[in-house]
Amino acid sequence: MNLKGRDFLKLLDYTSEEILGLIDLAADLKAKKKAGVPHRLCEGKNVALIFEKTSTRTRCSFEVAAYDLGMGATYLDPTGSQIGKKESIADTARVLSSIYDGIEYRGFGQEIVEELAKYSSVPVWNGLTNEFHPTQILADMLTIRERFGVLKGLKFVYMGDARYNMGNSLMVGCAKLGLHFVACAPEKYFPNAELVETCKAIAAENGGSITLESDVQKAVSGANVIYTDVWVSMGEPDEVWAERIADLTPYQVNASVMKMAAKNAVFMHCLPAFHDLGTTVGKQIHEKFGITEMEVSHEVFESEQSIVFAEAENHMHTIKAVMAATL
Ligand code: CP
Ligand code: NVA
Q1: Which pLDDT belongs to residue 192?
Q2: How many domains does the chain contain in total?
Q3: With a 6 A CB cut-off, is 230 part of the ligand 2 pocket?
Q4: Distance CA 40, CA 29 (A)
Q5: Does an H or E element contain 147, and which?
Q6: Do residues 54 and 143 both lie within one domain?
Q7: Which residue's alpha carbon is at the smallest distance from atom 3 of ligand 1?
Q8: Residue 173's pLDDT band (boundaries 50, 70, 90)?
Q9: 59-75 burial, b if ≥16 CB within 10 A, otherwise e?
Q10: Do residue 149 and residue 269 come from a single domain?
Q11: Which residue among 26, 88, 203, 230 is least enclosed by CB atoms within 10 Å?
Q12: Coil, helix or strand for 170?
C-alpha cells in the first residue's frame, strides 16, 4: 500500500483495501506505542493544524501523533489566523504548503477542505467538516475490530441525526468494509438520497447493506453496534434545539434500546456526549427543556457495554497512521 502524497478528505476517495491498510497500520503503531518502541517515521517534518471549530480529541490526537512520529506541529485556533477573514483558502494553502509537510483542516463545508487540498502541494487531512469526519471512522472501525475480531457482517445501527458528518461517514465506512449499516431516525433525518445510493452500490460489492428505518425495534433488533452522536452539531444555530429534542428523543440510546440489540452489543459515540448535567450546554438545555440527558442515557454511557473511551484513544492511533502513510 503506497499512500504517499495522498490527501485524506473522505473515505469515498479510498478503496476498501486502503482503508483496511490504514486500520492495520494504526493497530501496529498502537502496539509500538504500548510497548515503548519508538516510531519516529516522519522525523524532522512539520504539520499545520487548522481548527475553525473547537476540538479536544482530534486536536490532541494530531499533536501527540505528530510528536510521536518525530514531527513539529503548529495549532491554528478558530480565531487566531487570517484564514477566511483576510486570506482566501487558495492563498492559505499555497503559503502553508511552502512551510509545512502536511495540513489538517477542521471546519465547515466539505468544499473548503477540498479547495485547500486543490491548492496545496502537501497532503491535506480532513479533521471534520459538516459532511464528513473520516479520521473518526478509522478509529471507530479499529475499536469495533478489537472488540469483535471482524468487521464484515456485523450489524451497525446509527441512531439520531443521520444526515450530518457522523451519519454520512459511518454509512460510507460500513459500506466500504462490509458491515450492515442501519440509519435509525425519523425520515427527515435520513442521509442524503444520492449518498445513500452510492453507499448501497459500494456495500453490495463488499457483502454489506444500507437500510433506512424509523422503527426503533426493527432497526436495533440483533445489532452488534449501537452508535449515536449529538443532536445539534457544531456550527448549527441554537434555534434548532427545540425541534431536535422533540424529533430525536424517541431515538435516544437508553437501556431499553440496548436490550433490543444483540447480547454482545456495544455502545459507541464519537464524543463529546450529552449524558448528564456536567456541561454548560447540558445545564442550559436542562433549564430550558427540563431534560437531564439527551442522545444517550447516563446509564448506557457508563455501562459495561460502552466502549467510548477506547474509541477516543484509538482516534490518536488512527490519525497517526493517516499522517505516517501519506507523508
Ligand atoms: N470526536 C471528535 O472529533 O472529538 P473532538 O471534537 O473533541 O475533536
Ligand atoms: N456531529 C458532531 C461531531 C463532533 C465530533 C459535530 O459536528 O459537532
Answers
A1: 96
A2: 2
A3: yes
A4: 10
A5: helix 134-148
A6: no
A7: 58
A8: very high
A9: bebbbbbbebbebebeb
A10: yes
A11: 88
A12: helix
Cβ(233) to ligand 2 under 6 A?
yes
Q: Of the candidates 139, 195, 136, which has an alpha carbon nearest to the alpha carbon of residue 166?
A: 136
pLDDT at position 319 is 98
Mutate to test the pocket of ligand 1, among 54, 128, 318 (most ligand atoms within 8 A of CB): 128
Question: In this structure, what CATH number is given to the domain that contains residue 226?
Answer: 3.40.50.1370
Say if residue 209's pLDDT is above 90. yes
Cell reading at 319: 490519525
Q: Ligand 2 center to residue 301 CA distance, Å? A: 17
Same domain, 208 and 249: yes
Write the DSSP string, 178-237: T-EEEEES-GGGSPPHHHHHHHHHHHHHHT-EEEEE--HHHHHTT-SEEEE--SS-TT--
128 and 158 fall within a common domain: no
Q: Which residues contact 126 (CB under 8 A, 6 or more apart)?
A: 8, 9, 10, 104, 105, 106, 110, 113, 132, 133, 134, 135
Same domain, 181 and 220: yes
Please state, in angstroms and rounded to a whole number, the distance separating the CA atoms of residues 286 and 261: 29
| Distance of CA 312 from the midpoint of ligand 1 (Å) | 8
Nearest atom (ligand 1) to Cα of 270: 1
- Side-chain-side CA neighbours of residue 226 (13 Å): 35
